[in-house]
Amino acid sequence: MCGWGEVRGTRLAVWRWVASIPRDPSLEASFALKRDPYGFISERARMLGSDVFETRLLLRRTICMTGPQAARLFYDPRCFARHGAAPAALRKTLLGQGGVQTLDGDAHLHRKRLFLELLAPARVAALVRRAAHEWERAAQRWKALPRVELYAELQPLLARAVCTWAGVPLAESEVAARTRELTALFDAAGSAGWSHLQARRARARSERWAADIVERLRETRFHAAEDTAVHRIAFHRELDGALLPPRIAAVELLNVLRPTVATSVYVVFAAHALHAHPDWRAKLAAGDPAHADAFVQEIRRAYPFFPAVPARVREDFVWRDLEFRAGTRALLDLYGTNHDPRAWEEPEAFRPERFLGELPSPFAFVPQGGADPQLHHRCPGEGVVLELMKQALRFLTGSLDYTVPPQDLAIDRTRLPALPHSRFVITDVRPR
Ligand code: HEM
């Protein structure tokens, strides 16, 4: 484990051997990463026989890290920082600028508390109630349709639910356009060419929309209850007592709306897993909450969503006799760590039972980041994701009959986020 005592001690110990981080021999690995975003780090790490290796991505030296021990190091804020870590392509699409993801130290902890409070369990339960209403509405519509593409249908369903819950005004006439924009922020962010440009345009438009909502609320031109996300964000005060500039408040509001709509990806995986493991359908229908928990956790471990997260080496240090140089970009392999054979028995097998016992270490199970969400950058929305996934499973096993017609259900792992090629189509939908 890295620590300042050890780092400084290492530098004073003149005779201690310090090696360079093993290098991936390719001159530029961006194309290889694009071809295999989920396997790139773990496979090269295995080839080089090291949990950390250096490569060049987007023309910058980048340290790639995989496995639970590397994850523990990655989440040590003395060793890694987030400011300036995310590539421009992500800042201009998925993340925006100046949001909680880019903060370090006390500024991060203070902003993070805002998210943890507005996503507390009672608030998550309120969101799930909104979503239940939307599921019921959608099911009535679906029964009249010849085919339902679940991924596309879930996006407006979740957008309506999260906007109503967050206190964000959303007229029915706006739903389609806003849903398209919120979806482009996560669905097109990792693509190239035209789709990537669409994601950039969606970022600019959504930020203007969200900033306008924040300003109108501050000017009391509409009402939102004090415990709603929009109210909490609009009136959040920074450590110096100042309100957030509207554009940054917009980024934070989108940090709630966008990923809730992105939960559509996990709900599609839930439908996919239910179809692929029919023995679990009866178990889930029986209603044992431990089974539902285990099933959704195994989906988050086994299915590919976020491949990796970026950081930056904060100051020079040495770990396992390897030298990390200040300023170098680092990437922690989330997918590979969730499949690391040192932490997971038969990692490629889908086995929800593995979650029925002891909870895994927060450095081995990292689908939404690792370590402690109160203190580190780990996702504050895991409660939302778990509850929305379990709700979807309750709906798919208890409230809806449907047919899964022949289709290409193979997961396309070259796109970000990965999805079944068919986006999961159902037919003959019959609400019970
Ligand atoms: C849809 C499934 C989701 C996935 C796969 C996901 C994944 C992640 C990951 C990998 C991180 C970065 C962790 C790190 O940097 O160490 C993150 C951070 C974050 N997520 Fe999520 N997330 C999801 C849903 C949500 C939801 C529903 C919300 C809020 C409603 C949310 C809000 C955030 C925020 C605000 C951060 C930044 C936290 C920080 O920097 O301290 N996410 N998420």
Explain what you see.
There is one protein chain. This protein has 432 residues and is of the alpha+beta class. The chain has one domain (4-431): Cytochrome p450 (Orthogonal Bundle). Helices cover 49% and strands 11% of the residues. It has 16 helices and twelve strands. Strands 1-2-8-5-3 form a five-stranded mixed beta sheet. The protein has a three-stranded antiparallel beta sheet with strand order 4-12-9. A hairpin with a 2-residue loop joins strand 1 and strand 2 (60-65). Helix 7 crosses helix 8, helix 8 (150-166) crosses helix 9 (175-187) and helix 14 packs across helix 16 (382-399). The longest helix is centred in the middle third of the chain and has 31 residues, at 246-276. It is globular. The protein binds protoporphyrin IX containing FE (HEM). Protoporphyrin IX containing FE is lined by residues 100-101, 112, 115, 119, 255-256, 259-260, 262-263, 266, 305-306, 309, 368-369, 377-381, 384-385.
Keywords for this entry:
432 residues, alpha+beta, Cytochrome p450, 5-stranded mixed beta sheet, 3-stranded antiparallel beta sheet, globular, binds protoporphyrin IX containing FE
What are the SSEs and their pairings?
Layout: H1 4-12, H2 30-35, H3 40-48, E1 52-57, E2 60-65, H4 68-74, E3 80-81, H5 88-95, H6 105-118, H7 121-142, E4 148-149, H8 150-166, H9 175-187, H10 193-218, H11 229-234, H12 246-276, H13 279-285, H14 289-302, E5 308-313, E6 317-319, E7 322-324, E8 329-333, H15 334-338, H16 382-399, E9 400-403, E10 411-412, E11 419-420, E12 425-431
Helix pairs in contact: 5-10, 7-8, 7-16, 8-9, 8-12, 9-10, 9-12, 10-12, 12-16, 13-16, 14-16
The structure holds protoporphyrin IX containing FE (HEM).
